[in-house]
Design brief:
The structure holds two protein chains of two kinds.
Chain A lengths: L10 E12 L2 E12 L3 E5 L6 H8 L7 E6 L2 E2 L5 H6 L2 E4 L11 H7 L7 H14 L15 H13 L5 E5 L7 H16 L3 E5 L3 H7 L2 E6 L2 E6 L6 H9 L21 E8 L9 E8 L4 E5 L6 H9 L9 E3 L2 E2 L5 H6 L2 E4 L14 H13 L2 E2 L2 E2 L1 H14 L16 H13 L5 E5 L7 H16 L3 E5 L3 H7 L2 E6 L2 E2 L3 E2 L5 H7 L14
Parallel strand pairs in A: 3-8, 3-9, 6-7, 7-8, 13-20, 13-21, 16-19, 19-20
Antiparallel strand pairs in A: 1-2, 1-4, 4-5, 9-10, 11-12, 11-14, 14-15, 17-18, 21-22, 21-23
Helix pairs in contact in A: 3-4, 3-5, 11-12, 11-13, 12-13, 13-14
Chain B lengths: L7 H11 L1 H15 L7 H19 L2 H25 L4 H19 L25 H5 L4 H19 L1 H11 L1 H6 L4 H27 L11 H11 L4 H23 L6 H21 L3 H4 L14
Helix pairs in contact in B: 1-12, 2-7, 2-10, 2-11, 2-12, 3-4, 3-5, 3-10, 3-11, 4-5, 4-10, 7-8, 7-12, 11-12, 11-13, 12-13
The chains are: A alpha/beta, B mainly alpha.
């Protein structure tokens, strides 16, 4: 696995004592590490550990306050991404920096300094993409591509610049296991050709399989560097968190008296209200009290639509969604909340939370019905404030106070607040899309434990997630969404990653075309 | 064919003239919106163009300088919009509406001494014998240079947006300013330039109203043409050639209702003169009811302010 980097230990990039502070936080404090030519180097750390700031400095998006960087023996201080690209640094972003309404070739052209004529560029895209086993059609609209294919566009865009250092920020979070394998093959090929790769991820098993070296950051400081293959995933996680982790405990199943399912979905079909969305096709499942159903799938295969249909934002035929035998398919969100439903959508800012409203107001927006925070049309601000305080304290939300706008919180902190808000409404049915998206290992463990606690108290839980760890750790039964259809349900125990990958649609017809090896 | 005293060749020829102001303004607004900015101040910029063009033409005696002056005057007004929305992050809708009101007031102030004066005439392009061809000559070869310029500009904007790197960057900025910023494009600078272009085009259109179409100065001379131009951008679903079609359609309705009035049609004048605006509303309703088909082609970042804080 560590074939590259050993025969050519020539230093490519050295970071020396780099510090960057924002008002109120030190994102990077005296960070130093180096990458050799052809090395695949992992940058590990929890959210807010300063990984993103660090790579943004290497890519010229952020200027360091002090410290220096050296690229191929020369001082390196890119003032803008253009300068970084000219020096041979390329970056694949965590949230794709693609334009949906433009074609693949146009997207690639936008990321290049001196793009050739469109026709020549299209031919180059075809050629390079096939060389690296990532075939792409340059004339397709990016909005129509799957997440895996979009990532290919980003990678090809970088490869056409012939980079010396390729930065990848969480590249596998949207891929099926099979797609990850294809990506790793490409990365190893690049490494063998002498391109160094700086790889950011918190999927520890992947880092152990792929990377030659790792630098671990905690609260902006380098706390360790190691060879990932020599450590266990658990040791790596504990280095990141700086504490010992306890996996969530599952209580023994209780038997509940109700004979009917708390949530039953029968042949649910619905067109998507989202542009470029996926229609739901004939989805059926049922969840009983105390049970956790896990739904996997690559982003954009109907997860958002399923959540909308369950929360009541997307209404259907009354008989398509039932709760304890009562048809509720035609009810809206408030009526469903009154009936015991809570729902947490994936998109934190704009869907789950109103970005410019305070945490207290956001707590009210979803909790008003179940927590009885309004009386005769008037808001009980006292009760709302104390409930919001309670959520902040219980879920360890790091915020100056509950009157801070939701937008001002970091992603992980807001996620903790939003999960807390939904899970502390004593629900009968819980529907969550991406419960641990962007939160660190310790907080993820806590959120998973809280979900299990609700199930133990008798709630029926549906967890939709792209994070297989979430699902394998907490769900009793498991299914996957693929192009709006739900795979048959399987008990989670005994499932292998390969089987799950196939349930998620395998490599989505993206064939491997690796030449020479 | 004779439609109750209306000659079709003359009708088409005057339709081409009538549609020039809205076509120019809509074309400018198209570029602005493609860059992700919604400037509702088109009406205000047009009327500033009308008065500045008028004043320059009267003072210098040159219609050519008049058009330049009109474009510059409206561009100056659009610079206010650019500064407020792009630098100070003001709300685009409110700023655009304020710009219209400000433009209407300021133009009427500047124009106080110019009521009742005739501007220098804009010459017709001499096509020689071509203009004498029956019907075709009247329709195609009997216009002033701005008519031809406006059609050339449609082709130019189309080609730039579709084939050039500049056009690609403009579209990218309007599609996702965050992604464009991440790639290192100067979102604010590109948008300001687009706004200035939109201002110049609206000014050119406005100057055409006061120098050729009417030609004289009265308060509120553009009479809502800016709003029609805004509607045409949506009608055209942000495609330059459809701007041409849209402008001819609306220009046609305007000319037709004038002709009907002149021909003494037995419909009250008020109904006829409100018809272009009614049709505008109707078209917008039909376009947007088609299950978001028009909105699908809208630039995604349209009307959203960009702040490079992250």
């Amino acid at each position: 696995m560590t074939q590259a980097g050993k025969h050519m230990a020539e230093e490519l990039l050295a970071i020396d004592g780099v510090t960057k502070a924002y008002p109120g936080v030190v994102a990077n404090s005296d960070v130093s590490f180096s990458i050799t030519k052809g090395e695949i180097h992992a940058l590990l750390g929890e959210n807010g550990a300063g990984k993103s700031t660090l790579v943004k400095m290497i890519y010229g998006l952020v200027k360091p306050d002090s410290g220096k960087m050296t690229l191929r023996g020369q001082s390196f201080a890119p003032a803008e991404p253009r300068a970084a690209r000219a020096s041979g640094v390329a970056m694949v972003f965590q949230h794709f920096s693609l334009f949906e309404a433009l074609t693949v070739a146009e997207n690639v052209a936008l990321g290049m300094e001196n793009p050739p004529q469109m026709r020549a560029l299209a031919a180059r895209i075809k050629e390079v993409s096939e060389d690296y086993g990532l075939p792409l059609d340059p004339d397709r609209m990016v909005g129509d591509l799957s997440a895996g294919e979009r990532q290919r566009v980003e990678i090809i865009r970088c490869l056409l610049q012939d980079p010396k250092l390729l930065i990848m920020d969480e590249p596998t979070s949207v891929l099926t296991p099979q797609e990850v394998e294809i990506l790793f093959k490409t990365l190893r090929q690049l490494s063998a050709e002498g391109t160094a790769i700086l790889y950011i991820s918190h999927k520890l098993e992947e880092i152990r399989a792929l990377c030659d070296g790792a630098t671990i950051l905690r609260r902006g400081k380098v706390v360790a560097s190691c060879i990932p293959a020599e450590k266990t995933a658990r040791e790596l996680a504990e280095l990141m968190v700086g504490a010992v982790l306890t996996p969530p405990a599952r209580a023994a199943k209780k038997a509940w008296p109700e004979t009917e399912a708390a949530l039953e979905v029968r042949g649910l079909s619905a067109t998507s209200p989202i542009p470029f969305g996926t229609a739901l096709k004939e989805i059926s499942f049922s969840v009983r009290r105390g049970e956790v159903l896990g739904i996997a799938g690559v982003a954009g295969n109907g997860q958002d639509e399923l959540l909308l249909a369950l929360s009541g934002e997307l209404r259907s035929d009354p008989q398509m969604v039932l709760s304890f035998g009562k048809p509720i398919g035609a009810l809206g969100p408030s009526e469903r909340r009154a009936a015991g439903f809570v729902a947490a959508p994936e998109d934190r800012l704009g869907h789950a939370a109103a970005p410019d409203m305070s945490l207290m107001e956001n707590a009210l927006l979803s909790g008003a019905v179940r927590k009885g925070l309004t009386r005769r049309g008037f808001i009980d601000w006292g009760a709302t404030a104390s409930w919001a305080e309670e959520i902040v304290a219980r879920f360890d939300v790091r915020t100056p106070g509950i009157s801070v706008a939701a937008r001002a919180l970091s992603g992980g902190n807001l996620q903790k607040f939003l999960m807390g808000r939904e899970l502390s409404q004593s629900p009968a049915v819980v529907v969550i899309n991406q419960p641990t998206w962007g939160v660190d290992a310790a907080a993820a463990a806590f959120i998973r434990q809280e979900i299990l606690n609700r199930a133990e108290e008798g709630a029926a839980v549906v967890v939709i997630s792209q994070d297989l760890d979430d699902l394998l750790e907490i769900s009793d039964r498991f299914a996957a969404l693929n192009e709006g259809r739900l795979s048959p349900m399987r008990p989670t125990e005994g499932l292998t990653v390969d089987e799950i990958g196939l349930m998620m649609g395998g490599a989505h017809g993206m064939e491997v075309a690796h030449h020479g090896h | 064919m004779d439609l109750g005293g209306i000659n079709p060749a003359v009708l088409i020829a005057s339709l081409m003239v009538a549609s020039v102001p809205i076509m120019l303004a809509a074309l400018g607004e198209l570029v602005v919106e493609k860059a992700g900015v919604l400037n509702l101040g088109v009406e205000g910029m047009m009327i500033m163009g009308a008065i500045c063009g008028f004043v320059t033409a009267v003072e210098t005696g040159s219609p050519f300088l008049g058009f330049i002056g009109g474009a510059l005057g409206a561009m100056a007004l659009s610079l206010i919009f650019a500064f407020l929305t792009q630098v100070l992050q003001a709300n685009q809708v409110a700023t655009g509406l304020a710009l219209t009101l400000f433009g209407l007031g300021l133009s009427s102030l500047i124009g106080q001494g110019y009521v009742g004066i005739k501007p220098p005439a804009t010459a017709i392009v001499p096509f020689g014998p071509l203009a004498d061809i029956p019907v075709v000559g009247r329709i195609l070869f009997s216009h002033d240079p701005v008519v031809y310029l406006s059609i050339a500009l449609v082709a130019g904007v189309w080609a730039v947006l579709k084939f050039s790197r500049t056009g690609l960057v403009i579209r990218a900025v309007g599609e996702s300013h965050d992604a464009a910023h991440a790639l290192g494009y100067k979102v604010t600078r590109i948008r300001i330039l687009a706004i200035l272009f939109g201002g110049a085009m609206a000014g050119l259109g406005g100057a055409y109203v006061s120098l050729v179409r009417v030609p004289q100065w009265t308060d509120g001379i553009t009479a809502g043409a800016g709003w029609i131009a805004l509607a045409i951008v949506v009608f055209a679903s942000w495609k330059p050639w459809r701007i041409l079609i849209g402008a001819y359609l609306f220009g046609g309705i305007t000319v037709l209702q004038l002709n009907l009035q002149a021909a003494g049609a037995r419909i009250p004048v008020e109904y006829l003169s409100m018809s272009p605006y009614l049709i505008t509303i109707l078209v917008l309703v039909i376009m947007s009811s088609g299950k978001g088909r028009a909105s699908l082609n809208a630039p995604v970042a349209l009307g959203q302010n960009f702040h490079a804080s992250r």
